[in-house]
Structures are given as structure tokens and as C-alpha cells.
Amino acid sequence: MELRQLFMEAGCESKDYSEDKILSSKLPNLICVLPGSSKRTIVVGAHFDNRGPGEGAIDNWSGAALLPSLLESLRDSPHHLTFEFIAFTDEERGLIGSRDYAGHLSKEQRAAILLNVNIDSIGLPGPLRVWSGRSDDFLLTSAALVADRVKVRIGAAPLDRRYDSDASAFMAWKIPVIDFHSLTQNALPLLHSKKDIRTAVDPQSYYDDYRFLATYLAYLDEMVDARN
User: Fold this and answer.
1) Would you list the domain boundaries of the chain?
2) Which of 16, 125, 204, 216 registers the highest number of CB atoms within 10 A of its CB?
3) Cα separation, 166 vs 163, whole angstroms
4) What is the phi/psi pair of residue 82, to 5°?
């Protein structure tokens, strides 16, 4: 699997990498843990399945392929929190991978998760957006501060009830989430269509999304350190 190779190339050590098989899915969740000095954890997730008929470049290879790069951005710097990077399977079939993951956590494991950062359908022209109405207020404020720090635009936009994401699996267990996307009403028809191909990804926007997300994860870790 290409994503497994990307994790390895990003420096995910074999002892920190696992593949969680799911009975109702042909493919596992792919997990790389970046240990910190604390067991308090941020789960950074993106699904890797594609409903077609396009390549699924936006929905959601754009998110899944970024996970190893975000891991690499944090790997060589001291960090307090533990980061768990998870490529979830079968989001398109009803959030199967994320629901299986969240549902099988022990009470102690679930309590250790501070929040979920979900990345789904980014890299379209224009600013990165936060799915308003479901994202935690503190995390929204933090996102605005980081966007100003790295000089990128970020917005907030809701998606209607026809759409869902793996963040819902964490919300069901009262875990705070922030849900990133770059969709607009005009871009929504791109999903699950023949137009969802690599040329739909805007390179500059995708790079800005990466810069923001890498800085945002580091900022969240700084905030925890500042409180201790």
C-alpha cells in the first residue's frame, strides 16, 4: 500500500506503526504513533478510501497523503503531546474505520485523547476552511491565530446534512474535534465525480494547507506546554 510506504519514508518507526484490521472492511486502518513526553494524545485523521468514479484526489487522497508529511514536520522537534496519525478505511461506507477505532478504545485510552483533527477534501483553490457548527470553539480560535502567524487565509463554512466525516466518530464519544476542508458550494459537485482527479488539486493552496496544519499541530503542543 502506497500510504504505508509514505509513512515509512517519513520516519515512522516500525515499533510505532500498526494496521488495525476491521471485520467489515477489506482494508485496515493505518496508524503511526509519534510518542511525546505525555500520553495525552491528539488524533490526526484522514480517510483514504474513494467512492469514485474519479481518482479521489480531493476526496480524500489530499488528506491521507498529508498525514506522513505532518508526522515528519513534528518528528525531529521535542513535543509534549503524543500524536497519533491515522488513515481511516471506509469512511465512504459509513465511517466504518473511525467508528471501529473509537468504539474499541478502552475508557483510559479514550480519556487520554484531547482532540481529533480531521482532514477531509483539501487542496482546492482558495482558503482552507473549518467545518463550523461541529468544531470546538477553542480550536477554532486557535486556528485563526495560527493562520495569522503563517500568513495564510482560513475560513469557516458549514456543510449540510448530506455530508459527514470521520470527526463524527469522535464527537459521538464527546471528544472535541476540528474538521478541516476546502469545499465551497460550487466545489461540492466535484466529490464522487469523474472530475475528482489530480488536476483538481491546486498546488499553492495545498502547500498553504500543509504549512498551516503543520504549524497548527505544533501550536497545540505549545499550548499544552504553556499550561504545565
Assistant:
1) 2-226
2) 216
3) 11
4) -90, 135
Amino acid at 65: A
| pTM (2 d.p.) | 0.96
CB neighbours of 150 closer than 8 A, spacing ≥ 6? 211, 212, 215
Closest Cα to residue 82, out of 222, 227, 221, 226? 221
Residues 144-198 pLDDT 10s: 999 999 999 999 988 877 889 999 999 999 999 999 999 998 899 999 999 999 9
- E strand intervals along the chain: 17-20, 29-34, 41-47, 82-88, 113-119, 128-130, 154-156, 177-181
pLDDT tens figures, 25-80: 999 999 999 999 999 999 999 999 999 899 999 999 999 999 999 999 999 989 99
Identify the residue whose cell numbers are 476540528: 178
How far apart CA 58 and CA 180 sit, in angstroms, is: 13
Which among 28, 41, 2 has a CA at the least distance from the CA of 224?
41
Domain 2-226 is found in CATH 3.30.379.10: no
- What gap in Å lies between CA 71 and CA 149, rounded to an integer? 21
For residue 30, which of 9, 11, 16, 10 has the smallest C-alpha distance? 16
